[in-house]
Design goal:
227 residues, 9-stranded mixed β-sheet, 9 helices, globular
């Protein structure tokens, strides 16, 4: 059995993530495994973000770098060649890829009201759709939850076709759609981040929170997502 199957089946997948703590803040009481992917975050910047601001109320307990063959079944050269179409759409070149697996422990004195006792974040410096296809679709596995928050279309550094191509990859995955999606208001509007998948009717609201810019975050469950 692949040692990463359980992690991937139960994780929150956050493409175009930077090192934002939003999913951890709102979902760590439900999920303890997170997979972040962003081609724009250099390793030294990732390490700096872990130190400050980090994740409020948690300390870094363990960290190790993974070989791409463990997760993606390919060397970095082979991975880049396989996903050359995806990388050719990006506004700048992504070099020096890496994968880090980090374990965080809740600081003493904090209770379950703050969040889980511990959680793990896997961070891959790769394009998000390439990560979905090589980590999840290759195994016939769907992430438990997808995060669609400010995908950075246009001036954010992502190409305009990203939402459509991400949706195609999700629908073509033999593992089915994610069971849950955490999204913001931009994902259901008519701008660049709009997702037809989120805009469809076959989901139920699980929980909703306010967002600093006056918008909202909403966790929905898809009725045809596979567990």
């Amino acid at each position: 059995m692949d040692p990463w199957d359980d992690f991937l089946k139960e994780c929150v997948f956050y493409p175009c993530s930077r090192v934002h703590g939003t999913p951890v803040k709102f979902l760590s009481n439900r999920f303890s495994r997170f997979f972040y992917s962003d081609y724009s975050v250099a390793q030294e910047d990732f390490q700096r973000e872990l130190e400050s601001p980090g994740f409020t109320g948690y300390r870094l307990a363990d960290q190790r770098e993974l070989d791409p063959t463990e997760l993606f079944g390919a060397t970095w050269d082979d991975f880049r060649q396989k996903h050359e179409d995806a990388y050719s759409r990006l506004p700048f070149d992504s070099c020096d890829p890496y994968i880090m697996l980090c374990t965080f422990q809740r600081e003493s004195g904090l209770t379950d009201e703050h969040g889980a006792d511990s959680f793990q974040i896997m961070f891959a410096r790769v394009e998000g759709i390439a990560a979905l296809e090589s980590a999840f679709s290759r195994r016939g596995i769907s992430p438990k939850c997808l995060v669609n928050i400010r995908a950075g279309i246009g001036f954010g550094g992502n190409h305009s076709g990203y939402p459509r191509l991400l949706e195609q990859s999700l629908r073509s995955n033999a593992g089915g759609l994610p069971q849950f999606i955490l999204h913001d208001a931009m994902a259901v509007g008519h701008g660049g981040d709009h997702s037809e998948l989120i805009g469809e009717c076959y989901h139920r609201k699980v929980e909703q929170w306010g967002y600093p810019d006056g918008g909202y975050l909403k966790l929905v469950e898809l009725s045809d997502g596979k567990n």
